[in-house]
Amino acid sequence: MKKIGLMSRRGFIKVAGIACGYSVLGFNVTREAFAATLEFVGLRQQSVYNADSKIYSIRKSQDNPMIKKLYAKDGFLHEGPCGHKSHHLLHTHYNDRSAGVKALKAKGVKLAL
């Protein structure tokens, strides 16, 4: 991203959009919209916490009966949570693919993220 002075183009567009909103809508309307957004976020947070505490009886993974069965002596991952099989199946590994990207860029291929 190309920088314009101290600000990137994306940052400039954000600031310009906010400034246009203030100039077109006025300060009060923009403030009310911002307050309504914060109120919505607060209501959403409260409903998620209420659902978590009242609706869902199992809130910890170690209390889940299916997980307990999975790690039981006769279960699929009977070695335990830190066993070889569980580590192999449940953990990810990083593969550095930057050399391939550099090779494509050297050929002139333009990559969009």
Gross morphology: flat
For the record, the count of structural domains works out to: 2
Count every helix, treating DSSP H or I runs of 4 or more residues as helices. 5
Order of helices and strands: EEHHHHH
Strands of the biggest beta sheet: in what spatial order?
1-2
Structural class: mainly alpha
Radius of gyration: 26 Å
Q: What is the end-to-end distance? A: 11 Å
Describe the SSE topology.
Elements: E1 3-4, E2 7-8, H1 9-25, H2 27-55, H3 65-70, H4 84-90, H5 98-107
Antiparallel strand pairs: 1-2
Helix pairs in contact: 1-2
How would you summarize what this structure contains?
This protein is mostly helical and 113 residues long. It is built from five helices and two strands, in the order E-E-H-H-H-H-H. Helix content is 61%, strand content 4%.
Task: Please provide a written account of the structure.
It is flat and about 70 Å long. Strand 1 (3-4) and strand 2 (7-8) form a beta hairpin. The chain folds into two domains: 1-56, no CATH class; 58-113, G Protein Gi Gamma 2, CATH 4.10.260. Helices cover 61% and strands 4% of the residues. The protein is mainly α. 0% of the residues are buried. It contains five helices and two strands; from the N terminus they run E-E-H-H-H-H-H. A two-stranded antiparallel ribbon has the order 1-2. This is Ferredoxin hydrogenase small subunit.
